[in-house]
Amino acid sequence: MNSKRMLLLVLFAFSLMLVKRYFRNHQVEELRLSDWFHPRKRPDVITKTDWLAPIVWEGTFDRQVLEKHYRRRNITVGLAVFATGRFAEEYLRLFLHSANKHFMTGYRVIFYIMVDAFLQLPDIQPSPLRTFKAFEVDAERWWLEGSLVYMKSLGEHITSHIQDEVDFLFSMAVNQVFQNEFGVETLGPLVAQLHAWWYFRNTKNFPYERRPTSAASIPFGQGDFYYGSLMVGGTPHNILDFIEEYLNGVIHDIKNGLNSTYEKHLNKYFYLNKPTKLLSPEYSWDLAFSPPPQIQYVKVAHDSHRKL
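That's the Glycosyltransferase 6 domain containing 1 sequence above. Prediction below.
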């Protein structure tokens, strides 16, 4: 081997070493659960699942550690909301005003607002780092449920652009109001919301779909928690995977003359695909009920008595 060729190989090896060192120095180290999550501080509630996923309650997380981690990652978070129907305009105004104030403060956020042709968007001055994007949804009349229209539209937007714009995505119902900070403690690959009512009930009575021929069916004696349908979160890829499974499940049920609800399909998905993080009922408390002692700090509230 001549000296010139040897020199080229040495230079290449040195360059490769520098590249590896650069990526090693600039790689954001992933947090261990023990770095930020302290379940023993809330002995009054369930703080871990059987598959060791954290259940986030007030007092269980170290916000400073999480803030440092996610600021180094320089993340962008998406929040998608669907607003149609009789009370949608009123709900959307309250939802966006409160989200603009409390949702992921200090981080880049893109609000994806999906509305029908007749809805007047509220006049909101976005806070710094906030972007609002509105999309008109053509509601095909043959869809029997608004959730179908929304999920179909959201899946299309994730595929076309959302997956390239955000690191994490939440899909939330419009009839909610943020009351306190909804921060980075909620982020994860696949995030589920514990149902505010059913968390405090006997697991044997969970209202899962029980008809064996339904794609949403969960057999008697099985199931982990009952998850609420007002919020689902995770990476865009995982949200898209859920949407695809949900739409396939609905098609399956229609062919079999069934019509199971969105929430029951959601629970079947989380039964088969365990969430990596669960949010306590503090993150979606129903105003129809007085909070029990376990609910120390309501982050998001909704009114189940009013329907869209």
